[in-house]
Amino acid sequence: MELKVNQKIDEVKTNFAQQLEMAKDEGKKVVGSLCSYFPREIVWAAGAISVGLCGTTEGPIEAAEKVLPADQCPMVKATYGRAINNTCPIFPLADVIVGETTCDGRKKMYELLAREKTMHVMDLPQRPEEPEAKIHWRGEIEKLKAFIEDQLDVKITETSLREAIARGNKERALLKAIHECRKVQPPPIMGLDLVAVSTKTGYTVDRTDYHRNLESILSELTRRIETGYAACDAKRPRILWTGLGNSLGCDKVLRLVEECGGVVVCQEGCGGVTRLNDPIDETKDPLDAIAERYLRVTCSCMTPNNTRFDDIDLLIRDFNIDGVIDLTWQSCHAFNIESYRVGELVREKHGIPFLHVVTDYSQSDIGQLKVRIEAFIEQILAEK
Ligand code: SF4
Ligand code: SF4
Question: 9-160 belongs to which CATH class?
Answer without folding.
Answer: alpha beta
